[in-house]
Amino acid sequence: MPKGNILVVDDNKSVLSALEILLSPEFDKVECLSNPNLLISELRKAPYHLVLLDMNFKAGVNTGNEGIYWLQQIKENHPEISVVLITAYGDVELAVKALKSGATDFVLKPWENSKMLATVKSAIQLSMSRQEVKNLKLREKELKKVINQDEKFIIGSSPELMQVLSIVRKVAKTDTNILITGENGTGKELVAREIHRLSNRSSEMMVSVDMGAVSESLFESELFGHVKGAFTDARENRAGKFEVANKGTLFLDEIGNLSFHLQAKLLAALQNREITRIGSNQPIPVDIRLICATNKNLSELVEKGLFREDLLYRINTIQIEIPPLRERGNDILVLADFFLKKYAYKYDKPSLKFNNQAQEKLLKYNWPGNIRELEHSIEKAVILSENNVLKADDFFLRPVSGNKTENDTLKLEEMEKRLIMLALEKTPGNVSAAADQLGITRQTLYNKMKKFGL
Fold first, then answer.
1. Which residue, of 273, 291, 323, is where some domain finishes?
2. Disulfide: which of 98, 306, 404, 422 matches 103 by Cβ 3.0-4.6 Å?
3. 346-372 in b/e burial notation, b at 16+ Cβ within 10 A?
4. Tens-digit pLDDT profile for residues 388-408
5. Tens digit of each residue's pLDDT (9 = 90 or more) over 46-99
6. 197 in a domain, yes or no?
7. Most confident of 140-149, 287-296, 378-387
8. What dihedral angle (degrees, nearest 10) is formed by the CA atoms of 214, 217, 223, 225?
9. Following CA atoms 115, 120, 126, 128 in sequence, which dihedral angle do they give, to the nearest 10 degrees?
């Protein structure tokens, strides 16, 4: 593991010599400059993690303005590099001012070697964390381009949806915390992405975390990160979601599934605006815009003692309720048409269209699974279609009452049989590939083939 590269900038040759002797055995590279005008060009030549910077360079001048100027130049050109200031005892107030300008820390002349080493190691660790987060963001942006995650749109024009989008436009430019509520499948994450897209943070990352999928044992590592060796499987440093989302938006989906004792840890991070990686004692400041979502009634959970009231107040400055699909009228057909075009293109059936009876059936159904169920229903109908017109019978929808009749069961079994036959046709002789395509195990597929006589 790299120990770090250090650039020391001080016009006092004896200071440079002393620091080179002290630091060289402990770190990968220690370079010394007596002229600060060479600082920025030197940072372009090699990857540095830390600049140890004197605050005064001209004889008889002790305002510290030079140090602050060069600090600003470093942060502007290389924001991931840590800067530790070297200052005389009387300049402590000035050093505190420099901390507000972006310095990581300061050390006083004359320094204690042990304290100097501890300060330098901590600053380098912070710099490496920043670089790690920067690289992770670049990788995630490239991944999104590959899988087209950003090519998702909010579709519809119903008054209910327009009201939601009106609120979205009003709150997007602020940094206020937002809670999005609504049934499963209504598109809560799409609304969160729209808020981020319209916000002043749109050039930064929006990081999504499904709180329902994060186990209690991995919660802190997932959100706050860890350092190498912090626990058995911690083989390398890892940035948490808070760090990756720094300057951007953090979206916590299914926030109502978070256990009570973990809610306190989340609340502390939000209140303090900083996190600490597991295994480290170095607090890392974070600047995020928080958006949460849930399909649960958090006020009821508060009354039952299952959700912290102070956390609810923290995340719920503005609440946006997403209407269920059944309340959005003709948006059902608008969305159905969008999904039809999407899957007709995907499965190379460009001439597909709905007949009137199919549209009427889609409009009358109450869509308990909302947009997600509608999309899956359209995809199934497209896959199984045998001509250019989708009819009412091509859609296998759950009975509104929730009680399956014998006829409904037969329809479902027929649909399942047709899906299996189609998968087997696409993967001739390869049962494992067909099972993967269907999302079931190979043994399960064998059992179903036997059941249907295939």
1. 323
2. 98
3. eeeeeebebeeebbebbeebebbbbbe
4. 999 999 998 876 554 444 444
5. 889 999 998 877 655 566 678 888 888 998 888 889 999 887 765 667 767 778
6. yes
7. 287-296
8. -140
9. -150
Identify the three-state secondary structure at position 250. Answer: strand
* Tokens of residue 322, six digits: 């997403």
Q: In this predicted structure, which of 150-154, 354-358, 438-442 has the lowest mean pLDDT?
A: 150-154
Residue 412: phi, psi to the nearest 5? Answer: -65, -40
User: What's the token pair of residue 36?
Assistant: 């600060």
- For residue 90, with 0-12 CB atoms within 10 Å meaning exposed, 13-18 middle and 19 or more buried, which class applies? exposed
- Farthest CA pair distance, the chain: 96
**173 and 311 fall within a common domain:** yes
| Alpha carbons 246 and 194: distance in angstroms, whole number | 18
DSSP reduced 3-state for 295: coil
Residues 124 and 194 in one domain: no
Helices (H), 112-245: 113-147, 159-172, 188-198, 219-224, 241-244
- In a domain? residue 27: yes
Structurally, how many domains does the chain consist of?
Answer: 3
Closest among 368, 212, 225, 364 to 292, alpha carbons compared: 212
DSSP secondary structure string, 94-125? HHHHHHHTT--EEEEESPPHHHHHHHHHHHHH
Q: 415 and 268, same structural domain? A: no
Cβ 278 vs Cβ 226: under 8 Å = yes
The domain that holds 124 is classified in CATH as 3.40.50.2300
Q: Are residues 274 and 405 in the same domain?
A: no
Does the residue 136 lie in any domain? no
| Spatial separation of the C-alpha atoms in residues 208 and 214, rounded to whole Å | 12
Distance CA 376, CA 369 (A): 10
Domain that holds residue 204: 152-323
Q: Is residue 142 part of a domain?
A: no
Q: By C-alpha distance, which of 128, 118, 135, 80 is closest to 281? A: 118
43: which 2 tokens?
């940072």
**Is residue 349 within 8 Å of 382, Cβ to Cβ?**
yes
Do residues 312 and 340 share a domain?
no
**Tokens 């293109």 map to which residue?**
345
Q: Is the dihedral of CA 377, 212, 436, 441 positive or negative?
A: negative
308 and 245 housed in the same domain:
yes
Asked if the bond preceding 324 is cis, omega within 30° of 0, the reply is no
| 262, containing H or E segment | helix 260-272
Residue 373 sits at the vertex; the CA angle it makes with 437 and 342, to the nearest 5 degrees, is 65
